[in-house]
Amino acid sequence: MNSDIVRLEKTIDLAVKARVFGSRKQAVDFLIETLQRLERDLINRQMQDLDA
């Protein structure tokens, strides 16, 4: 869980940098994609815990 928070913090930092060097749409798209990936990872981890 702690690693998820670190990944989220890094994602937000990268999105801010993308906004500085790119467009708002690029930053938002990056955030959405990364949050969806984090959600899938979390769901997969929970499913593995249920199987164990």
Tally of individual domains: 1
The largest pleated sheet is described as: none
Distance between the termini: 18 Å
- Secondary-structure-based class equals mainly alpha
- Order of secondary-structure elements: HH
Question: Averaged pLDDT, please?
Answer: 83
Percentage of residues in helical conformation? over 70%
Give the number of DSSP strands: 0
- Count of helix runs: 2
Please state roughly what percent of the residues sit in beta strands, choosing from under 5%, 5-15%, 15-25%, 25-35%, 35-45% or over 45%: under 5%
Rg over CA atoms, rounded to whole Å, is 13 Å
The best one-word shape is elongated
Low-confidence regions: none
Oligomer: single chain
Structure write-up:
With 52 residues, the chain is an all-alpha fold. It has one domain. The chain has helices spanning 2-21, 24-51. Helix 1 runs antiparallel to helix 2. The longest helix is centred in the last third of the chain and has 28 residues, at 24-51. It is elongated. The chain starts with a helix and ends with a helix.
Summarize this entry quickly.
With 52 residues, this protein is mainly α.
Considering the chains and any ligands shown, give keywords for the structure.
52 residues, mainly alpha
Topology:
Elements: H1 2-21, H2 24-51
